[in-house]
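Researcher: Go.
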Amino acid sequence: MDFKQLIAYKKAFDLSMSIFNTSKSFPKEEIYSLADPIRRSSRSVCANIAEAYRKRRYPKHFISKLTDADGENSETNTWLDLALACEYISPVDPRFSEQGREIGKLINYMINNPGKFGVNLE
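Model: Structure:
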């Protein structure tokens, strides 16, 4: 299986693209202080999941990269909270927070069940 078939990767990629499109409407003064970091952290979630899957031959590397993905996912959620507090995203649209929580659960499932993702635990 290719990493692009992983549910966590697909959902993280979709969230990253939603964030990218939404952040286009942020004020110009927020380009470097909010739009850029939220884009980078959301993209890093996908990248770390992909890298973890390719390193599944090495259990510690697999878990380490997934832990990085989980950390980036938490960073993304913090940036989203800031964007919400600054009223750049709507509080009536909870999709970003819900998606972030779901992605976190999927990543943690992968961390706790590496054998189900082709990691040889022997």
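Model: Residues 15 and 96 are 7 Å apart (CA to CA).
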